Amino acid sequence: MAAVELPERTRGTCCVPKRRVRAEKIADLAEVLKALADPTRLEMVTILRAAKDPVCICDFTATFDLQQPTVSHHMAKLRAAGIVESTKRGIWSFYSLRTDLPASVRRVIDALS
After folding, report:
1. What is the DSSP annotation of 20-58?
2. Assigned architecture for domain 23-110
3. I want to staple 35 with a disulfide (CB 3.0 to 4.6 A). Which of 25, 42, 81, 86 is the partner?
4. pLDDT per residue over 18-58, tens digit each?
């Protein structure tokens, strides 16, 4: 991104920089970053990014030595942020990264590896 030159400073006058990103996009990305701010959820996303197939909730409970309700809570946060999607197979839920992630979210997730 190119540097933006601000006008010369005048005492008592603020130089308001131009906003470069729409407020809606900022809000959406902030929700994603909040969801990723937890170390367990961050690692879950890296696992899903590397997985060829959807990952069963039971695999996360074994990986993180967490109880199923805790893992479900983490996945609910990721789902609410629009990062993951789930499918049911019998009693099990399987998770994967959403295929329609916005490019900005995809770049954040890709930067994790």
Report:
1. -S-HHHHHHHHHHHHHHTSHHHHHHHHHHHH-SSPEEHH
2. Orthogonal Bundle (1.10)
3. 81
4. 888 888 888 888 999 999 999 999 999 999 999 999 999 99
